Amino acid sequence: MLTKAAEILDPQNAPLSDAAINYARACTDLVTAIAATATANAANRTADLTETTVTLLNEIRHSLSEMEPPQRNKG
């Protein structure tokens, strides 16, 4: 879609009508909105995966600490 919008906006390829220019601008706005949504979704997914990773690491640390033999007092 970006390629099509770029072709329409190119003075050599674009018709001179206002409708064609407005269509190209609308295509560009749509692609920008889609890209912003994809970026936001990726950021949310990254945050979710980071939270999951931290939770798993905490569970592993807790499990490992449960496996350690009790410390004896050397006194």
Count of helical regions: 2
The run of helices and strands is: HH
**Assembly of the depicted chains:** single chain
Euclidean distance between termini CA atoms: 76 Å
Determine the fraction of residues in helical runs and give it as a percent range.
over 70%
Shape annotation = rod-shaped
Give the strand tally: 0
**Integer count of domains:** 1
Q: Give the DSSP E fraction (strand runs of 2 or more residues).
A: under 5%
Round the Cα radius of gyration to an integer and report it: 28 Å
Quick one: biggest sheet? none
Poorly predicted runs of 5 or more residues: none
Class derived from helix and strand content: mainly alpha
> How much is the average pLDDT?
84
How would you explain this protein's 3D organization?
- The longest helix is centred in the middle third of the chain and has 50 residues, at 18-67.
- The protein has 2 helices and no strands.
- Helix 1 packs antiparallel against helix 2.
- The chain is rod-shaped and about 90 Å long.
- The model has no long low-confidence stretch (mean pLDDT 84).
- It has one domain (2-65).
- It is mostly helical.
